[in-house]
Amino acid sequence: MPPSNGTTSPRLSRRSFVTALAVTSAATALPIGPGSAAARAAGKNAVNGRPVVIPALQDWAGSTGRYRLEAGAPVVVQAAKTSELLPLARQFADEIEEVTGIRPGAPRAGRGVRGGLRLVLDPADRHAPGGDRYAEEGYTLTVTAAAVTVTAPTRTGLYYGTRSVLQILLRSDGRRELPTGTAHDWPDYRLRGFMLDAGRRYFTPGFIRDQLRLMGWFKLNDLQLHLNDNEISPAGGDWSKAYDAFRLRSEKPEWAGLAAPDGSYARADWDSFEDTAAAHAVQLTPEIDAPAHARSFVRFRPELGLKGGNSDHLDLAKPETTAFMKEVFDEFAPWFRSPEIHYGADEYTGPEEQYRGYFNAMAAHIRTLGKHPRAWGSLTEMAPSGTTGYDRDVTIHSWNNGWYGPKAATADGYEIVNTNDGLLYIVPFATYYHPLGLDGPYLYESWAPHVFPGNESLQPHDPKLRGAMSAVWNDLVHATYTQQAVHGLVERTFGTLAQKMWSGSGAGLSYRDFTAELRRGIAGPGLTTLTPTLAEPDQISLDAAATASSTAAGSRPAYATDGSPVTRWTSGRERAPWLAVDLGESRPVQRVRVEWGQDHGTAYAVEVSDDGVAWRTVAERTGRDRAGWDELAFPATSARHVRLRGQERASTRYSVWSLQVYDIPDLALGRPTTASSAETATLTAPNATDGDPGTRWASKYTDGEWIEVDLEQTRTVRRIVLDWETAAGRDYDLQVSADATGSSWRTVAARRDRTTAGVDTVDLDAVQARRVRMLGVKRQTTYGYSLYRFEVRG
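Below the sequence we write its predicted structure tokens.
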């Protein structure tokens, strides 16, 4: 397999990076849930279908009618001790306002209060199909025309029920209705996790807190923070010059110098992580990794390192080494509220007897601290003569079939977590694993927590399988990518993994429609650092600069272009305010979509400009009578600036959740695509036109290979975009064919002597084409030709 593009420069611009992420047409991007205008038009007596929630509801029985959220609606709690639920109720009320723009009433105890939004904690609540999973994390959502009630046996279940209510409101047109009916919901697996390598790259406290909020939004429940690590191989073998980091910072003098100088977390930071995790039903699992990956500890105590300290391995032949690591855990375990600690224990190259002693001693010590130990699976490599004598009361993360596969680990009696490297590892912008994010179509259509590569898959719901966990490993310690870039790689499949771990294939949607819905609810309330990176198909305004004639306190014009569904621009009280987007350069523009808040315009215009001074009107709307989405299409034009200008309004202000500007559509998106060859069964031609930058086509390792797309009708073509992987073409022709069979071709552009990968945009004089082809002449590398994207613009 050819390497993936390891260069970062063409991939770190959000605008260029995310425009390829769209996987559905503009039509399917419109709200399709039961709260949409189309659903309302079907009649008030229609039985409500399953509302869209990610992850999908396990069970739904629809009835007829709607609950309509009104300002001041009571938020009611019912429990043996209502004071225990009031913080959740207050959080829920604040989030409703953030998601809908409508402020409910102040939370209160439920006796004598009718209707509204109700949270009922009933420890005896059960649902037989959900079994133990329902008893621990499940809930029942009952919606009538008068009330929305979430009932659950635990606080966690109630929290998850509120996530579903918020997601349903978010996807309803106008954001204020829920379909009546009853849902029973629970997870398929106990552990639904994500691991973030903070050892090799520092992430700010705000990023960590937002990651916890985002996990709660998708009902993921275990964030494992990998808190120490080092570069894989130092230059010249000199470990004194290697990058390493330990991210916890004790104030005690005896630990001075252990924490990384380029970023670490104090006790107050960690407490804020724990508070956020508790509020969002996430377990924050710390990982302190040794005896390998331990350069920080060797730097701190050189006498404890192998090879006289010129190593990232601890010397386990010395009793004081294990004693020191126990002291590390003794110091920081009081910080951790999690019932578990991960102690690493992988990829050690020292003698097996010493490794086994450390593995067992540290597992036992962690239990004396009141915690359950977790470790990476390494016993096939570390114990070639057998695993007898290893502590079995450890949860094993099965990360590689060769090091310790799931069948071997479960046969030995271990409880395991699927963290398989081949399927679930992201190494940002590297040349191995998944450098641009996980394979979304594969995960959605073929993966489940029991699935491993090769012949290693377990039976679904194997009693030894706790669940699954994807992972980000920041191996490239000297690369210059940002934490937001990491989020962009993770975000693409975060909801997909949540879906497969919570309710399997219960979404009932194609991958294309699922991804459209994922984008619609990609971010929940409360985020302070993370911003969404997933653009709609052909959208060119994500993260674009925005200005406005006026802005209400606490709002920003950029909230309309930041991609977040829960931020909005609100104008001042002037009569005809405007909101403008600067695309950065002149671009083809053909339509605009706007999602109005509760303060919506009743008449408004779309204007464009080349210089931001002289404006021309391209579309107008009158008679708008509600909040929600509106789309205005117009003949294609070229413009740098696009402006929404108010003419009449329904209230004293204008409020816009999202203003989206669209390029001329990609004519190749989702069209039949073929190639002369494919390197493997998964690197096929349709990957280049599926809109997913994490998938790619790769040919055989020969010159002269080709890829072509059938536009299915004759179209005018003005631009071709090729996004090359490292295995790029050096010389190639872009050709078109006017006939359906592609029997004759003519070259419209000849590209020669190219020495870089990345995006190649080729503008053409208008040509008529039914088929478009890239015909390779010569490769840049010894590999074949490999494309992330093959776009054809009209």
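The chain is about 20% helix and 30% strand.
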